[in-house]
Specification:
Elements: H1 6-31, E1 50-54, E2 58-59, H2 65-80, E3 88-92, E4 98-99, H3 101-112, H4 114-117, E5 123-126, H5 132-141, E6 159-165, H6 170-184, H7 192-208, E7 221-228, E8 231-238, H8 251-255, H9 259-267, H10 283-292, E9 297-313, E10 316-337
Parallel strand pairs: 1-3, 2-4, 3-5
Antiparallel strand pairs: 6-7, 7-8, 8-10, 9-10
Length: 346
């Protein structure tokens, strides 16, 4: 009989081993993927319809602005190309040695808007960093909550995971302030200025972050909070076009643009809003005023190609404007809130 044939039995054993090895490798690959393929998606995971994009080793806009923004802009250029015909794209984060929530927010917004760039794309996937600390940042941030992922976010008492909104959402403010009260053991009175600051930042996102009705339907801002050593650090991404792009510019400023000077004038309260409405444009001076009073520490504002950073010590505000070669679409806010006036460094 065939089952007693040594050659047949040897072939069957080798075939079973080969099938087992393939299945094991597939499971291992999917284990490290935050959006693994499923049997029903009809996508060939390793076929010609997939395009891989490598993300930077230092995946942080705050720490590595130029490389990260160049990386995203190159990916966007590739996807927008008329010759691009891939149905599945995959973001490779495996080699990342540093991951911050700001870059994850930007990636999330990029993924959500990707089909507006190219309708041919049917599926977006990606994998975790091999670095365990970076992997935990991804899992604890809440990034996975917005993706069709088999891997779920990990809850941490030290974080308020990424929350997204389209309007001034008092429920989001309430959650963040409750988290701040609990972690810093403070009262509502202690955080009343913080509430005002959120209102100004989110107000900017709603009022004039999107020029010419460019809002594409997803959320206008993302917000994240993290408790670290007696302070709460906030990261907010306004997903609009960015402050510089939506500012009202004078004729000579269009001919000889200086983004640092433009942002500086807006922060100082010069009438720069492109909406032409007098009650608009007060948000940035109000935010700068709170930095000058030491209400928030280590404030950073990153928009388009310019970065504004502050430090506060001994009752004095130090400000620095930096211009970069990269281009960030939107506005990113980074700042710390604590009680007692201690100045912290990132």
């Amino acid at each position: 009989m065939r089952k007693n044939n040594p050659k047949y039995n040897g072939w069957k054993k080798r075939r079973s081993k080969l099938i087992w090895e393939r299945e094991y490798k597939r499971k291992e690959k999917n284990k490290n993927s935050f959006t693994p393929p499923t049997r029903n998606n009809n996508v060939n995971y390793e076929g010609p319809d997939i395009e891989f994009f490598n993300l930077p080793n230092r995946f942080s806009i705050y720490d590595n602005f130029e490389e990260v923004t160049r990386n995203f802009n190159q990916i966007k250029k590739t996807i927008n190309s008329p010759s691009f015909n891939k149905k599945h794209i995959h973001f490779n984060m495996s080699s990342s040695e540093l991951v911050r929530v700001d870059a994850l927010m930007y990636l999330l917004t990029f993924i959500k808007n990707i089909r507006h760039m190219n309708e041919k794309i049917k599926m977006v996937g990606g994998n975790f960093p091999l670095n365990l600390e970076c992997k935990e940042v991804v899992r604890e941030s809440g990034f996975l909550n917005y993706l069709n992922s088999m891997t779920k976010s990990t809850y941490s008492e030290e974080n308020i995971q990424i929350m997204a909104g389209k309007d001034v959402d008092t429920d989001i403010f309430r959650k963040i302030l409750h988290f701040t009260h609990k972690k810093l053991n403070c009262s509502r009175l202690d955080t009343k200025d913080l509430y005002t600051l959120f209102g100004e930042i989110i107000g900017n996102a709603n009022e004039h972050a999107y020029d010419n009705d460019s809002f594409n339907g997803w959320n206008k801002y993302l917000i994240f909070a993290n408790y670290i050593e007696n302070k709460v650090r906030f990261v907010i991404l306004d997903t609009g076009e960015g402050i510089i792009k939506t500012m009202k510019k004078k004729f000579h400023e269009k001919l000889f643009p200086d983004d640092r000077a433009l942002l500086k004038s807006a922060l100082k309260g010069e009438f720069r809003t492109a909406t032409e409405l007098k009650y608009r444009g007060n948000g940035l001076p109000t935010i700068r005023g709170m930095c000058a009073k030491g209400i928030v520490k280590n404030f950073s504002l990153i928009t388009n190609s310019v970065v504004y950073r502050t430090s506060y010590a001994n009752g004095k505000l130090s400000e620095k404007y930096e211009s970069y070669m990269g281009m960030l679409e939107g506005t990113l806010y980074y700042f710390d809130f604590s009680l007692g006036g201690t100045n912290f460094e990132h």
